[in-house]
Design brief:
- InterPro entries: DUF397.
- It holds the Pfam family DUF397.
- This is DUF397 domain-containing protein.
- The protein has about 70 residues and is an alpha+beta fold.
- It is built from one helix and four strands, in the order E-E-E-E-H.
- It has one helix at about 55-65; strands at about 15, 25-30, 35-40, 50-55.
- It has a four-stranded antiparallel sheet with strand order 1-2-3-4.
- It is globular.
């Protein structure tokens, strides 16, 4: 990606379905951007987001679901 800045000011964030009910320990993602998946800590919505290529995020989520991660 030539420009590492992605404008997320109007993004629709979705909270992880694995988040606990009291709003803590939450990850939020944006699902509808072409080729990328921004991820942030819901406790810091104005803080930084990490932007992953869609394929890398998909591989990560699959590994978490399958617990196919080293040390897990």
């Amino acid at each position: 990606m030539a420009n590492s800045h992605v404008d997320l000011s109007t993004a629709s964030w979705r909270k992880s379905s694995y988040s606990n009910g009291d709003g803590g320990d939450c990850v939020e993602v944006v699902d509808d951007l072409p080729g990328i998946v921004p991820v942030r800590d819901s406790k810091d919505p104005h803080g930084p987001a990490i932007v992953f290529p869609t394929a890398a995020w998909s591989t990560f989520v699959t590994a978490v679901k399958d617990t196919d991660l080293p040390g897990v």
